[in-house]
């Protein structure tokens, strides 16, 4: 979970948790990842922090966003 005493920013910790879950198959390709609010509540982080983690996940190619529906796991990360 999130370590508030870590030198690693909380958004990066959240991002790493989500990547780990995708790699482990907790969130298989085509499934929805938690919403900003759900992620914020689950990990005990602020909404802007959760937004940044999810945005980075998308920018890294792990997810894609469907407007109005949420973020979904991509088939595989793009280079």
Features of the shown structure:
79 residues, mainly alpha, Arc Repressor Mutant, subunit A, two-stranded antiparallel sheet, 46% helix, 10% strand
- The topology string of helices and strands comes to HHHEE
Proportion of residues in helical segments: 40-55%
Mean pLDDT metric: 94
Q: Low-confidence parts lasting 5 or more residues at pLDDT below 50? A: none
CATH architectural name: Orthogonal Bundle
Number of helices: 3
Strand order in space, largest sheet: 1-2
CATH superfamily: Winged helix-like DNA-binding domain superfamily/Winged helix DNA-binding domain
What value does the Rg take, in angstroms?
12 Å
First CA to last CA: what distance? Answer: 27 Å
- Major β-sheet annotation: 2 strands, antiparallel
- How many distinct folded domains? 1
CATH topology: Arc Repressor Mutant, subunit A
DSSP summary, beta strand count? 2
Percentage of residues in DSSP E strands = 5-15%
Overall 3D shape:
globular
């Amino acid at each position: 979970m999130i370590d508030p005493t870590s030198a690693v920013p909380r958004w990066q910790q959240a991002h790493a948790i989500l990547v780990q879950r995708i790699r482990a198959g907790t969130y298989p390709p085509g499934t929805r990842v938690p919403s900003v609010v759900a992620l914020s509540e689950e990990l005990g982080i602020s909404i802007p922090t959760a937004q940044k983690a999810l945005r980075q996940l998308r920018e890294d190619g792990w997810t894609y966003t469907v407007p109005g529906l949420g973020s979904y796991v991509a088939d595989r990360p793009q280079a």
